[in-house]
Specification:
This is histidine kinase. With about 500 residues, this protein is of the alpha+beta class. The chain is about 50% helix and about 15% strand. It has three domains: about 170 residues, Beta-Lactamase, CATH 3.30.450; about 90 residues, Helix Hairpins (Orthogonal Bundle); about 150 residues, Heat Shock Protein 90. The strands form three sheets. It has a five-stranded antiparallel beta sheet. Strands 7-9-10-12-11 form a five-stranded mixed beta sheet, covered by helices on one side. It starts with 9 loop residues before the first helix and ends with a strand.
Length: about 500
Amino acid sequence: MLSWPRPRSLQLRLSLLFVGLLVAVSGVYLLLLSRSADDYLAEDMQRRNLALAASVAKVLSIDSATNEIPAAAIAETFHAAMVINPNIKLYLLGLDGHLLATSAQPNEIRAQTVAMAPVRALLSGGQPLPLYGTDPRHPGQPRPFSVAPLHNAGGALHCYLYITLGGPAAASSEPAALRRSHLLDVLLRTLLVAGVGVLVVGLVLISLLTRDLQRLVATVRRLQTGDYSARATGIGANNELGELAAAFNDMSARTEQALNELRTTDALRRELVANISHDLRTPLASIEGYTETVLLRRHLLSPAEQQQYLETILKNTHRLKRLITELFELSKLEAQQTVPQPEPFSLPELVHDVVQQLEPAARACAVTLRAEPTPAALPFAYADVGLLERVLQNLLDNALRYTPAGGQVCVHVAPAAGRLALQVRDTGPGIAPPDLPHLFDRFYRTDQVRRKSRGGSGLGLAIARKIVELHGGELTVSSTVGQGACFVFSVPMYVP
């Protein structure tokens, strides 16, 4: 069994559907148009002949003696009327619609009764034209008609004169046929012009609509091939396709952003592995070397040398422990496994305690560490004391590590926009502008910072930033090379 292939192009399918609908609508229109033309001509014929039956009825008179119309008068009148207009047929109807007399031949009559409802409706004058009545010769083909009542000498209704208008012969012989042909011709020409116009406009609109869809399909295919920068452009924003294009562009942008984040994460992972490997390798190598020396040459080493080697091993062990602890702490912060437990406390007192803890380290570095005076009646902070202490320790330890001897590190607390702001300033060498955006990245250390004499794991500032973010703040830094650096963050203020 053969079958036609279905068109795959949406534009072609829509065009074929549109043409089919247009042809179907045109066919229905032609059918209605033909019937409307017939109704129009029937109305015109009936309206022009409304008085025909009344004028003929004037010739007919009812004999007062017999109360009947003489058959000879009926035949003569019907014959005269038929001579004038051969396309009419005349009938006398009883009050019940039964045929009393007819101008047609007896063998032509197919119905002996005429429906009286249309007759009464036409006589009442309240119904719109045309009104179709029974044609006794062709009962299945109602005709427009004219009717007039006939009254006897006493004024009583005697019968009706019923005249059918038109007929099969009239369709080709009357001038109305020419009028009908002309009317249909004009309407068909109008339909043809309108149909061609609608067809052209419809196909153009379908082409414009599918053009936007084709652009969207082309963009989706670009995305399918791996071009995640593809965006749907040139599509109207005031329709469903525009909304679809906007949704696709948003999805594409999110996909591209997610891929960029994955690439960045992968790069950070590689960098993290490299940095961890580097930072773990050095103390492990030192521990391994000094341990082998103590084990293999312990009989050659003096007690002082053995003590020095063991202290070096312990120092590197502490460094490894600190690095692993900070890695574990940072991973918990980034995975949001650390949940702050805020409580009201005095921030200046916390600053004072941390400064006292680090005072010995500051004296060892010949650096002045001090907490600046705070405003009177400073409100309490509302934060996690332990986490905030960790932030202060990291910031102050970082400042002490990079402030040269004779310099100073200051801590200042002050209210700011409904929060408590804390500043840590130092008089160190400062931070170069290219390094500022990366200062809080994991393991990021400049060439100057990477000098072994500085120590540090490169995780302290990253941990501090994460803790501050958990408290709804932001850790920022400003610095001028040669004039030191200033770290600033804020914590919520306690509201009773």
